[in-house]
Amino acid sequence: MAPFGLFKKKERKEDQAADFPDVSFPEAGKITIQESQELLQRIEQANLQSVGSRLAPIKESVSQSLKSVGQIAKDMEHEKIKLEDLEQRYKSIVENSRKAIVTALKRESAVELELPQSINDAKKFREKFEAMMNRLGEVSGSHRKVLNTFMKRNANLMKDEFEVLQKLLSQTKSIMSEFDEKRAPVVRCGSVLNTATQKVSSIRSADVSIETTEDQIVQAEKETQNMKAEIEAAKSSPEFSKAAAVSQKIEESRRHEKELRAQTVELFSHITRALTKYSYGVSKETEARLGVMSSEPWKLLYEDDLLPYSSLLSEVRKSIVSGSIQLKDSDRMVQYLDSILESLPGYQNKARSIRAELDSILQEDHSLFLKAREIEERIALRTEELARNKVYLEQQKKQNEERKKEVDSSLKEAQEILLQLTGRQYSISY
Questions:
Q1: How many angstroms separate the CA atoms of 15 and 413, rounded?
Q2: pTM above the 0.70 mark?
Q3: Which alpha helices (DSSP H) does 79-151 contain, by range?
Q4: In whole angstroms, what is the distance from residue 193 CA to residue 24 CA?
Q5: Of 388, 381, 269, whose CA–CA distance to 336 is shortest?
Q6: How far is the C-alpha of 162 from the C-alpha of 135, rounded, in Å?
Q7: Which pLDDT belongs to residue 148?
C-alpha cells in the first residue's frame, strides 16, 4: 500500500551487516561476573558504534531530502495556481489544502535526526523518523486529490522525495532490526548475570547468618554442658540432700494450704445465691465482706477476728429462716450455713497451723536446691533454643544450596551465550 497515496513503495533488500563488531575479548578461561558484565558493556558499545556508522549516511541522505522537501514547500507557497472558470468554486478548498500542505512540509523539513549515543537514542532515531513519515503520509494522503489535480508538478516532486525517504526508512528499520537481533543475546545474558549477582549477594548474606547461627549453637551447647556440670556438682554435695528435703517439706505444706483453700471455696460456693440476695441495700462495709465470702472465702482463714463474718453469716441465716430472703431450697441453704459456721473455726486453726509450719520450714536453708532447680529451668530453655536454632540452621543451609544451584545454572547459561557471542569458552565464577 502506497504510504502517501501518491506512489507505491519499491521493495529493496538491505545489505546484511557484519556478524559481529570488532571487540577485544579476554582470553578464554575463568572470569568473574563483573568481568562478564564489563565484556557485555563493550559488546553493547561496539554494537552501538556499528549501528551509528550505518545510520550516519542515512541521516545525511534524510537531511538532503528534507531540504528538498523544504524547497518544495517554498515553491508551492508562491506557486500561482491556475483555475478554469468552473474550477473557481474550488478556490478556497485548493488554498486551504495548499496552506495545510506547506505548513506540514515546512514543519517536517525542520526535523533533524541525531545519531545515537546510547541504546535509547538508537530506538528514538527510528521512532522519530517513522513518526515524521507518518505525519507526511497523513497530510499528503488527505490532500491527494487537490495535489494531483491542481499542483501536479509539486506533487510529483513530493512523490520523488517521499519515495527516497521511504527507502531510507526501510533501510533504517532493517538496520535497527538487525541491531535488536544482535542485542537480544547480550540483553538476555545481562539479565541472567544481574539475577545471578542478586542471588550471590543473598548467598553471602546467608553464609554470614549461617556462621553466626553455628557460633550461637556452639556457644549454647558449651553453656549447657557447663550448667549440667554445675548441677552434678551441686547434687553430689552433702548439703543438697538436706536442701532437697527442706524444699519437699515446703512443697507439701503449700500443697496442704492450697487444698484447704480449695475446700473453703467449695464450702462457700453453696451459699453464693443467698449472699447475693442478702447484699441488696446493705452498707458498703457489709457489701465488702459479702464480696470476700463470695469470691475469695479462703481469706477468712487468715483473719484475726472471724466474728464480723460469723455474725454476718448468722444474719443471712436469720433472713432465710424468717423468709426475708426467698429461696427454693431454703432448708438446704440453712444447712450449708450451719455447716460453715460450725467448721470455719476449725478451718482457720488448720490454716494457721499450716502457715506457722511453712514459715518455720522457710527459715531452713534450701538455697542449693533452688539454685539447682533454676539451673535446670535454664537448661530446659536453652535446650529448646538449641533445637530451634538447629532447625533454622538446616533450613538456611538448604535454601543456600538451592540458591547456589540456581546461580550455577544461571552462570552456565551466561557462559553459553558468551560462547555464541565471542567464540570463546569462559568459566564465570563468583
A1: 32
A2: no
A3: 91-109, 119-142, 144-150
A4: 20
A5: 269
A6: 12
A7: 67
End-to-end CA distance of the chain: 55
Q: The C-alpha cell of 381 is what?
A: 530453655
All residues at 6 or more sequence positions from 214 whose CB lies less than 8 Å from its CB, including other chains: 393
- Pick from 22, 76, 29: nearest CA to 50: 22
* Number of residues in the chain: 430
Report whether 7 contacts 13 (CB < 8 A): no
Give CA–CA dist 298/259, Å, rounded. 11
Q: Which amino acid is at 154?
A: N
Instruction: Say which residue the cell 517521499 belongs to.
Output: 162
CA–CA separation, 160 and 131 (whole Å): 19
Other beta carbons within 10 angstroms of residue 322's beta carbon come to: 8
Are 164 and 65 in contact by the 8 Å Cβ rule? The answer is yes
Residues paired with residue 30 on neighbouring β-strands, in sequence order: 427
Cβ atoms of residues 59 and 126 within 8 Å? no
In sequence order, which residues have a C-beta less than 8 Å from that of residue 154 and are 6 or more positions away? 72, 75, 76, 79, 147
pLDDT at 271: 94
Predicted local distance difference test score (pLDDT) of residue 96: 83
